């Protein structure tokens, strides 16, 4: 339903990040009353560059602060919540596990508690990750157990389980989304592989590969991701307590990824193998049959289309 959220009060946590910015963009297009929480605005972010700040209501909020979270949800009479705020970087979580666990777990609990005490909330989608499955994540279905065993992975496993526990225990309209590696215009985390490749290509630099280059990941375009979030929220009433995988089917090793991107943009990317990566899972891919069947969702963009749009964005970003 194209305008499902028109004139409805929708909150996005983490709207200044990659996924949140694209969700905000789509909701503004639909005519939703969009509210966002933020800690700071990066002037180079997709959210700011798309001039979304003037089209939403912004509330400064640390999601670790329950009273502030509750105040935002209740004060603005929020009907729908896309909870995508997180500490999203695996190496950062390794260095500072306390912060990652507090943001990703406590932040999620605070959103769920606010939902439990605010009866006007009709739907919450909580962002999980393929990392929540742990090492057994090769064409994983939603029935695979949560089995993270390093700080970032565990934070997502816990948040995922807690969200579904709230849905089942308190009969709340909560569902969980699980994605692979998300890429696209607006990703400012340059230590991620695709932003790193883009920077290296544009500046003629050498990208350093933390692994041995053989790790396989699923790469899904951010515009398809935003569509997945909206599709799940539109169908939240029928899917309380459910989790959904969203995937592209594009599963590449790091070295294959570099080769494919180089071919698409017509420029060879130089790289150096460091092979010093800690706490990474060798292979991750997701089965998204459930999303196709129950949400009528599938990726619209080919890998080539996604990379071309992404490369154009980074060229403008680095001007």
Task: Describe the structure in your own words.
By secondary structure, this protein is an alpha/beta fold. The chain has a domain of 223 residues: NAD(P)-binding Rossmann-like Domain (Rossmann fold), CATH 3.40.50.720. 41% of the residues lie in helices and 17% in strands. The protein has eleven helices and twelve strands. It has a seven-stranded parallel sheet with strand order 3-2-1-4-5-6-10, sandwiched between helices. It has a three-stranded mixed sheet with strand order 7-9-11. A two-stranded parallel sheet has the order 8-12. Helix 2 links the parallel strand 2 and strand 3. Helix 3 packs parallel to helix 5. The termini are far apart.
Summary, kept brief:
The chain has a domain at about 10-185 and about 220-250 and about 280-300: Rossmann fold (3-Layer(aba) Sandwich), CATH 3.40.50.720.
Q: Secondary-structure map with pairings?
A:
Blueprint (H helix, E strand, L loop, with lengths): L8 E5 L4 H13 L2 E6 L7 H4 L7 E4 L5 H10 L4 E4 L6 H6 L1 H20 L6 E5 L23 H20 L3 E6 L1 E3 L9 H11 L2 E4 L6 E6 H13 L8 E4 L4 E3 H12 L4 E4 L15 H7 L7 H15 L2
Helix pairs in contact: 1-8, 3-5, 5-6, 7-9, 7-11
Keywords:
319 residues, Rossmann fold, seven-stranded parallel beta sheet, three-stranded mixed beta sheet
CATH class of the domain at 9-183 and 221-248 and 281-300: Alpha Beta
Q: How many distinct helices?
A: 11
| Residue share in β-strands | 15-25%
Number of strands: 12
CATH architecture of the domain at 9-183 and 221-248 and 281-300: 3-Layer(aba) Sandwich
The parts where pLDDT drops under 50 for at least 5 residues are: none
Q: What average pLDDT do the residues reach? A: 95
Shape: globular
